[in-house]
Specification:
By secondary structure, the protein is an all-alpha fold. The protein has ten helices and no strands. α4 runs antiparallel to α7.
Amino acid sequence: MTTLDSSAAWASATRMVAANRDLLMAIAGVFFVLPGLAGAVFVPSPAMTPEMSETQILAVMQDYYASSLPVLLLLSLFPMAGMLTMLVAMLDTARPTVAQSIRRSVRALPSYFAAQLLVALAILPLSMALASVLALILPDRLAVSVALGLLLYPIMRTMLVGPVVAGEGVRNPVTAIRESFGLTRRNAGRILLFIGMAGFVFLVVYGLIMMFVGVVLVLMFKGEPQRLLGEAVSGVLLAIGYTYFVAMLAAVYRQLAGDPAGTGVR
């Protein structure tokens, strides 16, 4: 049973990003930045104000998803394909090209999507049941928060479905989920801490940069150009963060799959 070494995994992730920088930049631009900009142009987020009540916010969000759900679902496939493409590029020692990585990710996408759907179908009823039970003894908001917190465990256990599908070519979604459970056994807490700490640092840096960018854009632009430029900067930052997240998944997978140091960078 391999125990995750977070320091080695982070070192491996950063080396993988550095070793594949040009390839990953191209993939991130195609699958993360461009779809994000398309979503900002064609399905912009609904306008909400602090004065809105919870009922009004809920109504606005329901209308938004009712009218935009097909486009949002289509756009959500691009980040999935982008993640699989990056995983193929980072995990395959044969050094595939961008085109080869994309072709393999497209073939793996149905399996990955099916696995994610199965996980969601299992987790959502469980979360609702947990929240309902906890609401009998706790305030509603606290009950929902505790239920969501408890769901982090199964999410961490299925975190390696993507690397299993992309790195091993597993096409059976149930097999991919079962293998992810096997790889993450007794490591769910370490994976959560590893990813959680990195995510917290990213959110702090992202927030500071966007505050500065927001001030600059307010001074230099107005209206729609200001919004679109803000979305573009945000999209680039999120693409960088997501690239490192995928590299972290690849590093964790390599280490738990048998690379003792988690340093098998090609």
